[in-house]
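Supplementary Methods. Inverse-folding protocol.

Structures were first reduced to a discrete structure-token string of length 416. This string, shown here, constituted the complete conditioning input.
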């Protein structure tokens, strides 16, 4: 006797052919249309933001040309202040550009997230359809051939049912391939999204660096105005000091090395052995604000930055990088309060922009001993021409400034 369940199973081939073709066309097509509209809207937003980034690039380029022209002009206080103003504006534009870049990347990530969601939804629809199809085909397989034959009015209708099942099997194979393809696109989209997020982190670091540079340039202008009292003659004195200081220091180091030779021979065993490794005079964890021969140094068009600037709050203890004799404690318009220590092997270290001295000239200091306290806040005693609270640290070999980081332990620190 033919049961209701068997009749339903015999009708499955026609039902599955119709539904398997119909559901993706309707459900996925509607979803794809909605997703397409969202993506187009987001892509339009990305285009607008990218155009804004290009505008900033053009403005930055024009300021860079202006700065280069100004650097070749006569060195006067008025020109230097105007130059600093333009450098500040250029860095403000760089910060704005970084913000615009961040906004564009965020929208790109949002676009990729929408694509991911669309692909994940499509995979779910395809999996559900495949699950239903496989389950119903399995039910059809459980019906015996004699039952199918007896329920069909003719032999041709029986073979029609078999042909429909074969078509379903082909459709099943095509759907599995489509599912694999969608999954592959999903993985590519995820990879692109992760790459955008890495780029976003880079741009956020760039923004923080540019904002830090803006503050430093503004502080430098404040220091310059305070030191010169807006007087051209005072400015010329500072320029003379800057140009003369290195040669004077080299001559004085040579003289002191001869004078202190016997004392230095017994100082600091590490340096006496020929090891030139020095200690950081302040903890570098807060970051480096300017490196040796820094490309962004405000007076680079006059002379190279001769040391490493380490960020440090006002009043941070400054320690001797190695054992040696204190050559001098001085005050200059550029370095403010600064001290120099002579070490064995023709090495000297300079510590500038101090707020106060501790070690006295012509006295021996141990490696790590406190020799003074950091400063650098524009307008405060001992700051000199400063971009903000920090320690300017120099290493001199034979009186000539060399890169301090070649003599210091490596440290995983940020450069701002």
């Amino acid at each position: 006797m033919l049961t209701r369940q068997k009749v339903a199973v015999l009708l499955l081939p026609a039902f599955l052919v119709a539904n398997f073709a119909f559901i993706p066309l309707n459900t996925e097509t509607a979803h794809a249309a909605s997703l397409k509209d969202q993506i187009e809207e987001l892509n339009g937003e990305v285009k607008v933001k990218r155009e804004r980034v290009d505008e900033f690039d053009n403005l930055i380029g024009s300021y860079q040309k202006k700065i280069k022209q100004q650097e070749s002009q006569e060195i006067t206080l008025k020109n230097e202040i105007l130059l600093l103003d333009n450098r500040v504006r250029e860095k403000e534009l760089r910060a704005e550009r970084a913000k615009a870049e961040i906004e564009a990347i965020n929208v790109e990530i949002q676009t990729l997230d929408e694509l991911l969601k669309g692909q994940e939804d499509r995979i779910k629809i395809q999996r559900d359809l495949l699950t239903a199809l496989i389950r119903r085909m399995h039910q059809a397989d459980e019906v015996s051939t004699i039952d199918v034959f007896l329920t069909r009015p003719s032999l041709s209708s029986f073979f029609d049912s078999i042909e429909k099942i074969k078509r379903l099997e082909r459709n099943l194979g095509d759907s599995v391939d489509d599912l694999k393809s969608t999954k592959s696109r999903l993985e590519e989209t995820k990879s692109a999204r992760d790459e955008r997020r890495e780029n976003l982190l880079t741009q956020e670091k760039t923004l923080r660096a540019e904002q830090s540079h803006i503050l430093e340039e503004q502080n430098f202008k404040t220091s310059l105005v305070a030191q010169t009292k807006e007087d051209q003659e005072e400015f010329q004195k500072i320029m003379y000091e800057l140009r003369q200081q290195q040669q004077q220091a080299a001559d004085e180091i040579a003289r002191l090395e001869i004078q202190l030779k016997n004392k230095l021979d017994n100082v600091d065993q590490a340096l006496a052995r020929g090891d030139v490794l020095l200690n950081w005079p302040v903890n570098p964890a807060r970051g480096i604000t300017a490196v040796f021969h820094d490309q962004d140094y405000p007076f680079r068009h006059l002379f190279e930055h001769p040391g490493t600037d380490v960020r440090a709050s006002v009043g941070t203890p400054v320690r001797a990088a190695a054992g040696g004799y204190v050559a001098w404690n001085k005050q200059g318009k550029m370095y403010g309060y600064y001290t120099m220590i002579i070490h064995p092997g023709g090495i000297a270290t300079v510590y500038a922009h101090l707020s106060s001295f501790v070690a006295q000239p012509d006295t021996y200091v141990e490696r790590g001993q406190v020799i003074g306290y950091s400063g650098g806040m524009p307008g405060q005693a001992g700051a000199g021409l400063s971009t903000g609270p920090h320690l300017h640290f120099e290493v001199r070999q034979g009186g000539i400034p060399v890169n301090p980081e070649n003599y210091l332990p490596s440290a995983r620190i940020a450069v701002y």
